[in-house]
Each structure stands twice: as C-alpha cells, then as structure tokens.
Amino acid sequence: MSTAAAQPRPDNLRGALWMLGSALGFTAMTVLIKFLGDDYPAALQTFYRQAAGFAVLLPLILRRGRAAYATTRPGILLFRSAAGTLAMILSFYAFQKMPLADANALSFTRTLWLVPLAAFVVRERVGPLRIAAALVGFGGVLLMLRPGADFSLGLPALAMLAASFLFALTITGMKVMTRDHSPTVLLVWAMTLGLIFSLPGAFIAWRWPEPVDLALLCLMGVIGTATQACYIKGMQAGDAAAMAPIDYTRLVFTAAAGFLLFQEVPTVWTLAGAGVVVASTLFITLREQQLARSAKLSGEADA
Known about the structure:
This protein is an all-alpha fold and 303 residues long. It has helices at residues 2-6, 8-36, 42-64, 74-97, 100-107, 110-120, 128-144, 155-177, 183-204, 211-237, 240-247, 249-262, 268-302.
C-alpha cells in the first residue's frame, strides 16, 4: 500500500524535469527564430526545422524500414501534416514579428480551441464548465488584444491565433490516430510529410545561408525536435494534471529571454490576459483529467 502510494512521486518528479527541459528548449528555439527572422522568412525557417527533425529520425526510419510508415489511414495523416506545417509557418512568423511573451501567451489558446473541436470533430460530450472556461479564456485573449492597445490585433497576432487553431486540429487528429497507431509512426509521418509540405514555401523564399546561419538553422531544428520529445516524455512519465502547470513555465522563460535579449517589456494587459488564458486552460486540463479518472473508476466498478 505504501509503495503504491509513493510510486507517483518519482514519476512526477521525472516528468517535471522533462517538462522543464521542454520549456527551456522551446525558449531557445523561439530565440533563434526571432534572431534569424530578419534574414530568413518563416517559411524557410520551417523547412530547416523539418529537415533537421527528419535527419534526427532518419536512423530510426532506416532501421525500421516500412514499419516506420505502417498506417491504415493516410488521409488523416496527410491532413494533420498539412495543417501542422501551415501552423508552424504562421507561428514562426508571429514569433519573428511579436514580442516573445505576447506570441507565447497567444500560443496557449490551442487548448481553448480543443473544446469546440472535441464536440464537433471527435463527438465528445462537452459540459457547461468546459464551455464556460473556454469562453473565459478567449476573454483573456480579447484582454490582450484590446482596441487601441500596444498589443493590437495585427497580422502577427492573427497568425498566432490561426496557428493555435491549426495545432489544435492536429492534436484532435492525433487523438483519433493514437487509437491504432504508435506515437513513433505518427512522428515519422509528421516529419516526413512536414518536410515535403514545407518545400514550396522554402523555394519561394529561398536564399543560401551563411555557414554560421546554416548551423543556427540546423540547431533550431534539432532543438525543436528535442523539445517535442521532452514534452512527450514528460507527459508519459508524470500525471497529465501535474505536468500541465509546468508547461506554463514557458511564459516565464520567454518573457525573460525577450527582456534580456531583445529589450521587450510585456505590458500589464498582456500579463493580465495571459493570466486569464493560463487559468482557463489549466481548468480545462484538470477537468478533463478528473473526468477521465471518474470514467476509469466507473468502468472498473462495472467490471
């Protein structure tokens, strides 16, 4: 009994460390996106991000052969990758053009988009509490984008909101695909198709990078892949409800990086709106975790 009760603690500790690694990696990636943004457009950066990620996975693909691409639903994979690639281009553009803290705060709206998508796409039952939390969260977005504020509803902010919606679509698709596909297969398909889908935009914006810039672009891609891997590891190792708050350390890290490296100072309205978005998305995450546990206990009782 005592052993079982103590088991979640080391798992959550290990998961928290993975999540912190993901937050730090994400911050480093966004710093490179912004630093290189004056010379390399978002579409070109996305190509290098996908190319580096594919290179990291290439040994696994070669080792597993056709099994790395085993799927019964290529259509959903194509849609997920197209949406994910476009979302990455839009988010990179937003990080280039907006203060890091502002863009990062808007990126968390993907959790809010999951509420209507769960109802209309996955046909999940969405209760009034989740709907209310989503509406409050979008109220936080309006607080950040209030008319006449420094943080105005320009193209970069719209790009990040659109990217968050598209990322939410890919997450919804992943929920469907994980029923009969392994995470490795989904990651391999995402990187391969992402590289292909990023080619047209990269071709239009193409320029040969300087050796130092090429190294930084490749480093950005490797860090992005490692960030994704750390996030998956963290969620696997720890309880989702305990890991979700740790992911919000990204807000602190990106705000600090923006201030120290780019002299960006978040406004009071940005901080207030971000707080509302964080609180609402945390509530949604914790609520979903509570419902999942209740359903599991109910199933065990029926058995």
